[in-house]
Specification:
about 0% strand, receptor, 3 domains, signaling receptor activity, mainly alpha, globular
């Protein structure tokens, strides 16, 4: 028995060491992983020494850890995937303390947001109304508070804010995420426009002035593994005709016009579009001041990324 105990202790120590090494790689990778890790530390209240977890909201902590593993699969072996309520296992060498009272909060996260999610989805809902309903909902408000804390304009970290947006919208039930993403305001309703900026991460998550060309956005996205994965899914779910006919062949894409671009606009497409929130694909882009030869392809990309006609 003693031998087995020592063996498993050694295995656990090796796993912990490997996972701490992964954490260091994540922090130094420069691929957005550091930003997600910062959200993990914020949500889980991880100590400065990195050897403990004092999360008051263990469910929220566990969900952001699972989000880390989903976005960066190398962490899969560093989080548990079998417990009813998942938590840090080998990542920090000890578990986040699980308070069984928080099972009720997990139920709320899975089945909650009832006031919001039971409403039938309608287009062009007022962003002020949607924002107010989220604030009045205990679960939605808790998620929104973390996101707004990370995206504070006064101490804005763009990548951290984008990671928080991805986590926020991935955590929302699909109907609620739709209402938030596709909400709108009448022109002179300043309160509504402020609510819209809060829900959509502006100006922290999309600060580029002047906006980059849409060609640059696509090319930069394709150099980032996470963004490339989301863009590939978005293109296949929403713009199947493009994927089927041209794949990534830009010479072929240049031959297409908007009329050649039927958008599926189904639930899978909307989910893929929502998944783009919190990546560079969400940034405003332009086709102004480009050489004429680059205009057609740029306008095609702008249409794919920002045309609301797909969802109207």
């Amino acid at each position: 028995f003693t031998v087995l105990f020592i063996y498993f202790t050694c295995i656990s120590t090796v796993q912990t060491t490997d996972c701490l090494h992964l954490k260091e790689q994540c922090i130094n990778a420069g691929n957005g992983c550091e930003s997600v890790w910062n959200v993990v530390e914020d949500a889980c209240n991880i100590s400065v020494l990195g050897n403990g977890c004092k999360a008051e909201d263990t469910v929220g902590c566990n969900r952001i850890i699972q989000f880390l593993a989903d976005e960066y699969p190398e962490f899969k072996n560093c989080v548990c995937t079998t417990d009813d309520i998942c938590s840090i296992t080998t990542l920090l060498g000890k578990r986040c303390g699980i308070n069984k009272d928080n099972i009720s909060m997990e139920t709320k996260l899975q089945w909650g947001l009832s006031a919001l999610s039971k409403q039938a989805y309608t287009t062009n809902r007022s962003c002020l109304d949607v924002n107010r309903e989220c604030v009045e909902d205990e679960v939605c408000n808790k998620q929104l508070s973390l996101y707004l804390k990370v995206c504070s304009v006064n101490k804005c970290n763009v990548e951290g804010c984008q990671a928080a947006i991805r986590f926020f919208y991935q955590n929302m039930p699909f109907e609620v995420a739709q209402m938030m993403i596709f909400c709108d305001c009448i022109q002179h309703d300043e309160s509504c426009h402020r609510a819209k900026e809060l829900l959509h991460g502006k100006p922290c998550a999309v600060p580029v002035v002047p906006p980059p060309s849409c060609l640059n956005v696509i090319h930069t996205c394709e150099e980032n593994e996470l963004c490339r994965r989301k863009y590939t899914t978005f293109r296949s779910k929403c713009w199947r005709h493009v994927t089927k006919k041209c794949y990534s062949d830009e010479a072929c894409l240049e031959t297409l016009i908007k009329d050649d671009m039927p958008c599926s606009a189904n639930s899978d497409c909307k989910a893929a579009y929502i998944s783009n929130w919190g990546t560079m694909l969400h940034m405003e882009c332009t086709c102004q001041n480009l050489p004429p030869v680059e205009q057609p392809l740029c306008e095609l990309f702008h249409h794919m990324l920002h045309s609301k006609s797909c969802f109207s």
